[in-house]
What does this fold into?
Amino acid sequence: MVLAGNALLGPISRDVATKVNAQIVPVATYIIATERLEPTRAMAIIPGDVAISDSMFVVNYYRRTRDHRILFGGGLDWSGLAIRNVGMRMRNAMHHWLPATKGTSFDYCWGGYVDMTSNMLPSLGRLGPNVFYIHGFLETASR
It folds into this structure.
């Protein structure tokens, strides 16, 4: 069996929590979806049917949806603590990286945790004769 649940492996068992969670740093990542835009404006912001990501240490990613919204996501917090005004912080990041979105509001915001290892390399290990784990494969750009 291969356990590949990234930041969510901990609750599986005490062995997993002890061996695996000690190696990870949870990273809160969020996504916002703008209000519906005029189709021509949405296509001007992101032409074509493509998904885009940048090369930052923790990537930002964005795309246009079929109903002409802009989805914008990225890593926002490494502390593991709840943060305030997530939607507004994500909106400000979106406006920074996609200046053409200035003046738009967002209708939806959601998020969760991914992980990375303390040495920033994926971690693979064995918990039993037929039980393996892999985690820490947060998509980051190389430096």
